[in-house]
Each structure stands twice: as C-alpha cells, then as structure tokens.
Amino acid sequence: MVLAGFLIAPAGVALGQGIARCRPSPDGANPCPRPLLLPREQPLSAMAQIGRSMFFDKQLSGNGRLACASCHDPAHHYGPSADRAVFLGGDRLDQQGRRAIPSLTYLDRIPGFSIGPDLSADDAPPPAIVPPPPGDAAHAPKSAINNAASATNLVPQGGLFWDGRADSLQQQVLGPLYDHAEMAATPATVLRRIQHAPYTAQLQLLLGPGGSSDPQQLLSEAQFALARFQIENRDFHPYSSKFDAWFQGKARFTPLEREGYLLFNDPAKGNCAACHVDTASKEGLPPVFTDHQYEALGAPRNRELLANRDPAYYDLGVCDRVPDGRQTLAPYCGMFATPSLRNSATRHVFFHNGVFHTLRQVVDFYVLRDIEPGRFYPRGADGGVRAYDDLPPDDVKNLDRTDAPFGGRPGDKAALDGHERDAIVTFLGTLTDR
Q1: Most buried in the list 10, 66, 396, 406, measured by CB within 10 Å?
Q2: Helix, strand, coil % (nearest 5) of the chain?
Q3: What is the DSSP letter of 298?
Q4: 108 three-class SS
Q5: CA distances for 175 relative to 62, 165, 375, angstroms
Q6: CA-to-CA distance for 227 and 246, rounded, in angstroms?
Q7: What is d(CA 55, CA 57) in angstroms, rounded to the nearest whole number?
Q8: Where do the coiled-coil regions begin and end (predicted)?
Q9: Do 273 and 264 form a contact (C-beta atoms < 8 A)?
Q10: Which stretch of DSSP H or E encloses residue 368?
Q11: d(CA 44, CA 57)
C-alpha cells in the first residue's frame, strides 16, 4: 500500500518490513505519484443556491447580527477569523461559546458516529455499533506505518462537532443556530425568516404547494439547503494545496518540507500519520488527514473560558454527547474529535478549548506533554505540577499514553528536537489550500 511517498507494509506485517521503499526524492519530488479523484467544478443546484443565501443571512440569528459565515469565514477556510479561544455570541454578542470553532472544510466525508474497530484508513463507519469496552481494556498503540495492532481497538469515530453529536451536515446546522451562546435563534425565529426572505419564493417553488405550507417541512428543507451548499460548493473541499500537487507529481517539497513529511510519517518520531492519515482512499479520494476518531489528549485547562473558572466544571467531550454519557460512555470521557490538518497552518486556535494559538505550541505539547509537564500545566500549592488539569482524576486513565510521541517520564529525551518540530510545522504548511 502506498502512503503518499511511502510503500507501507500490509496489515499484519511487522514494523520494519517493506517500509520506506519509495521515499521522496532528495530534490523533493514524489517518485510514486498517484492520480487523485478530485471534485469537479459544477454549477450549484437550486437548493444549494438557497443554502448559500442562508449561509450569509444574519437575519436567521436571534439578534439579526450573526450568520453562519460570521464564525465560519470563507476567507479563513470556513473557520474563525479572530484569535479568541471561543466565539462571542448570544443576543448581545457577549456570551462565550462552549468550544473553539472548527472549520467547515472537509466535513463531507465524515461518517456517522459509532463505536467499533479502528479502521483508520477507511471513510466508512465500522460495521456495527458495539458497547464500550471495560474501563481497563487494553489499547494497542497506533503507528503511522502499521495499523494491524490497533485494528482491534474499539474506538469512537465519525460524527460532527468536537463530540460527534451530529451524524450529518443537515443535523449539524441546528447546533449553532439554536445555541443560546451562538446564533441564539429559535425554530420560530428561523421559520419567520425563511417565510419572508429573498430566497423564500425559490424555496417554496422547490417544495411545491404541500411542502411550502407545512412549517416543519419548510424548516427541514432549509436545513437540507444549507447542507447541500456545503456539499456542492467546492470551496469547502478544494484539495488545492501544495501537498495535493506533490501527491500527483506536480510539485516538489523544499528540503525542510521533505524532512517534516518524513518525520510526520516516522513511527518513532512524529507518528502523526497514525491519526492524521495521509493515504488516499481505495477509490483515489485525496487524504483528509484525519482518521475521524477521538482521543483524550489531556489539553491544559483554558482559564480564559469563564466556565473553566469553576473547579467542578469539566468538558468531557464524547461522554457529554448524550445526557447519561458519563456513565454509559465512561471509557471515552475526555475524548474529542481528531480534526483534519488541512489548512491548520492558517488557524488561530487549537484543541476543543482553544488553549493553544500556534501549530508549534501544539507540536511541542505532543512531544513534551509527559516529559516536561510543567511547561503546560499549573502548579499546586505544594509546588507540584498538576498534570492533565482539565480531566477529573477518574478519567485520566482514558488518556492516550501509548501512541508516540506521547509517553515517557519527566527528564526523558524528547522524540523530536526543536529543529525537527519546526520541520513538521513547515510540512503542515503544504496542506494549506490555495
């Protein structure tokens, strides 16, 4: 199997066999180019055109001052334009959102939420939803070059938002729309607007007499229109980065980009591709740089967030996606979605709580979390480091400690030195769409 420029051992083959027989050339070229199945530029359907109008319509919000595009700025790859950890919304635009705003790009290939075998290179969900394993279930490590060992892990995967609580773009629409700290609308607010908007006549024409007179059907079709806009508009998934050109043999890495790419795929170094998968699908779809799974990484508590000033408050991700999740999904408390790394070099905030503001800070955290915890976590009254301070003590066991570069003890040598971390950040810049 080709992993971008690498020929990778098939499942079940031990590490070290059949690895790196097709490395990037010294001049940065890809000696194993592969064509990609890219989305075609096509006119938007009538429904998607309505969705485009709605995406920029501030009158859909409770105060008439926020549109979807206010948080998901097209000029910033449909992510936030500001560097605040979370967005300010609500009726008076003074309420903090619960989590950092994710980009809306590359969401069209995320499957619905499920818990099942680790099928990290597959866009499809696992074959069946299964109960969570016992809290002490073993977790085999994931490797960027061999996923045979981790394939038996039962993991949460798929779904939209940081906790996977929506299974489709159509469902996802309602989250920010009705959140009192975001767009702060109500079904009545939205219905009034879509009954008296510049696009109302076109929406009613598509629905016909029966549908346009049914308020619930009108709301449902409005959701569908927003989803169609995101699916049909190639701006949400352009695959136009330097990496995409390199993958197809049309560009060359600089020496530092090449070095960063090799470290990104090295299981003893960055091991980034274990979760941020850079393989094309069997059909030739470009890599989206995520396995669509969830991890408990132990990001430091962000005390810029008002909710986090309450010591009893914890945002536990997957196990907060349903009311009884802290009991029924306990093995996954503290896990959040692994986002795509595409366009990550242009982002201003990282992790679900927006605690970091540069990619270098993120890479430093991955490499140094366990060996230099005092660099990221506060100290208690006794002077000791309060590691993993944004997880309740009972949920620290859910942390990923097995997948490199995590692990180790204070004082151990870092898996990546400073120059190598810079190289990975430089490589990530090749994932920015043009």
Answers
A1: 66
A2: 35, 10, 60
A3: -
A4: coil
A5: 14, 9, 35
A6: 31
A7: 6
A8: none
A9: yes
A10: helix 359-368
A11: 18
Residues of the chain with CATH 1.10.760.10: 1-32+239-434, 46-106+165-236
Contact present, 251 and 242 (Cβ < 8 Å): yes
Structure tokens at 424: 């990975």
- N- to C-terminal Cα distance for the chain? 28
For the record, the structure tokens of 39 come out as 């989305």
DSSP H helical ranges for 125-266:
169-172, 174-178, 187-195, 200-212, 215-232, 242-247, 255-265
Distance of CA 264 to the CA centre of its chain: 17
- Amino acid identity, position 11: A
Q: Are the CB atoms for 42 and 177 separated by under 8 Å?
A: no
Question: Model-level pTM?
Answer: 0.91
CATH class of 46-106+165-236: mainly alpha
Q: Which two tokens stand for residue 311?
A: 């010591």
Q: Does domain 1-32+239-434 have CATH number 1.10.760.10?
A: yes
* Torsion on CA atoms 79, 118, 108, 33, rounded to nearest 10: 90
Model pLDDT, residue 47: 97
Helix intervals (H) in 291-374: 325-328, 359-368
> Distance between CA 245 and CA 229 in Å, rounded?
26
What the block records as the tokens of 339 is 């986002």
Dihedral, 353, 357, 361, 362 alpha carbons, nearest 10: 50
- Chain centroid, CA 388 distance in Å: 21
What pLDDT is recorded for position 117?
85
Nearest to 246 by CA among 254, 235, 236: 254
**Measured torsion, CA atoms of residues 335, 362, 266, 280, in degrees rounded to the nearest 10:** 70
Is the distance from CB of 223 to CB of 64 less than 8 angstroms? no
Positions in the chain short of pLDDT 70: 1-21, 119-140, 146-152
Tens of pLDDT, residue by residue over 327-337, are 999 999 999 99
The tokens of 71 are what? 């948080």
Bridge partner residues of 336 (DSSP): 295
Q: What is the pLDDT of residue 394?
A: 96
Q: What is the dihedral of CA 126, 127, 129, 133, to 10 degrees?
A: -70
For 113, half-sphere exposure in the C-beta direction (CA atoms, 13 angstrom radius) is: 21
300: preceding bond cis by omega (within 30 degrees): no
Residue 432, SS3? Answer: coil
Residue 251, token pair as written in the block: 């560009």
